[in-house]
Amino acid sequence: MKVLSVVGARPNFVKIAPLLREMAGRPQLQSVLVHTGQHYDARMSDGFFEALAIPAPDFNLAVGSGSHARQTAEVMTRLEPVLESVRPDVVLVVGDVNSTLAAALVAVKQGIRVGHVEAGLRSFDRSMPEEINRLATDAISDDLFASEESAVSNLAREGVPAERVHFVGNVMIDALRLTRPLWEASRVFADLGLDRIRRYGTVTLHRPANVDDPRRLRQILGALHEVARHVPLIFPVHPRVRERLMGADVTWLGAAQPVPERGIVCTDALGYLDFVALVSRAAVVLTDSGGIQEETTILGVPCLTLRENTERPVTVTHGTNRVIGVARSRIIDAALFALAHPPAKPGAPPLWDGYASARIVDTLLGAAVEVAA
Ligand code: UD1
C-alpha cells in the first residue's frame, strides 16, 4: 500500500512526524512525503523537520505565500502531476491549513482515497479560514480520523456515515510523547536566562482576527502589559506578526540577552522542542493557537484562549483551557486568577495516550485488507 502524505505549514509537521514514524515500521506500507512549501522559512519549516526527525520530503512544491486563492490554487496545480506519477493508494492530509484542503481536492478528483487526520473539529465560526478548510476537507474525505468525541458528533450531525469516522485520539500528543526526552533537555531556559526567573508566562498570537486589525492587536497588547507587570510574558513571534509589532511597547530579545523581570518580551519564532519546553514550565499560556490548547491540556499548564470559541472543546472539559475572548478586563482577570491558582494535574482526554498514529495506520491497513478480500 502506497500512502502519500501532504504537509505545508508548521502544525502539519508536528502531526505528520509520529505518523511517518509509525508507517516506517510497517513493511506493508510505502510512504511518500510531499511538502507544499506553504511555510518555507528555516524557523517555520526545516527546523521542525530536524527536531521531529521527519525525513526530507520526496517532493517540495515550493508554493510559498500568497492570498488564500492563489496559495490553494498553486498547491492544487503543482500537486496534480505528482499524484499522476506516484499513483498512491491513499493520500493522507492533516489539520486545517490551505495545503490540507488543496491536497484533498486534487486527490479525490483523481479517484484516490483521502484520509483526513484531525477531522470533524468545528469552531462554528465561518470567518476563520481554517473552519472553511475543515468543512470542505471533511466533506470530500473517505476516512475521517477524529481526535476527540465532539468531532465524532459533529460529523454524525453533518450526515457522514459512521463507518467513515474513526475515533483514534490525537497525533499532536503522540509527537509530544515521542520527543519528551528531547524537549526536557532543551537549552531554552539557559539561553533566555530563565533559570533566574521564578515565574513567567508564554504568549502566542497569529490569527488574522487578532493581529490584522491594529486596534484589536493594541487592545490585546494593552491587557498583556497589565499581566506583564506581574510576570514576564515571553512571546515567540510568527513572521506574519513581526511587522505588526513594530512600534509597539514590547522588548525584542537580542542574542545572549536574558529575559527581563517584567514586560512583554518578544523573540523570533522558536523551534518545536524549545517551544514545548517553554510552555511546559510556564505559569500561564495566553494563545490563539489550536494546537497549543491541546499541548497545555496534557502538560497541565493553564491555557487562556484569546478567541470567542474553540474547535477543541475537550481541552476545556478535560484540560486546563479557558476560552476568554479578547476583552481587556477578561484577559487581565483570567491571567491573574491563573497565576494565583495553579491547576491540579488534569487527566487526559479519551485516547490522548500517545498512540493515535498506530490506530490510524492500523485502520488504513485494515481497510486495504477488506478491499483485497
Ligand atoms: C497558517 C495556517 C494556520 C496555522 C498557521 C500556523 C492557513 C489558512 N493558515 O497560517 O491555520 O495556524 O499556518 O503557523 O493555512 N510567512 C513567512 N515565512 C513562512 C511562512 C509564512 O514569513 O515560512 C509569512 C508571510 O508573510 C505569509 C504569512 O506569514 O504571507 C502568512 O503565512 P500563511 O501560510 O499564509 O498563513 P499563516 O498565518 O502562517
Descriptive key words:
373 residues, alpha/beta, 2 domains, 7-stranded parallel sheet, 14 strands, 16% strand, binds uridine-diphosphate-N-acetylglucosamine
Per-chain topology:
Layout: E1 2-7, H1 10-24, E2 30-35, H2 46-51, E3 59-60, H3 68-86, E4 90-94, H4 98-109, E5 113-119, H5 129-140, E6 143-146, H6 149-157, E7 165-167, H7 171-178, H8 180-184, H9 188-191, E8 201-204, H10 208-211, H11 214-227, E9 233-237, H12 239-242, E10 251-252, E11 264-268, H13 272-280, E12 284-287, H14 291-299, E13 303-305, H15 314-317, E14 321-323, H16 328-340, H17 356-372
Parallel strand pairs: 1-2, 1-4, 2-3, 4-5, 5-6, 6-7, 8-9, 8-12, 9-11, 10-11, 12-13, 13-14
Helix pairs in contact: 1-7, 1-17, 3-4, 4-5, 11-16
Characterization of the model:
- With 373 residues, the protein is α/β, with parallel strands linked by helices.
- It folds into two domains: 189 residues, 3-Layer(aba) Sandwich (Rossmann fold); 158 residues, 3-Layer(aba) Sandwich (Rossmann fold).
- The protein is built from 17 helices and 14 strands.
- The strands form two sheets. It has a seven-stranded parallel sheet, with helices on both faces. A seven-stranded parallel sheet has the order 10-11-9-8-12-13-14, sandwiched between helices.
- Helix 5 links the parallel strand 5 and strand 6.
- It is globular.
- It starts with a strand and ends with a helix.
- The model has no long low-confidence stretch (mean pLDDT 96).
- Uridine-diphosphate-N-acetylglucosamine (UD1) binds next to helix 1, helix 5 and helix 12.
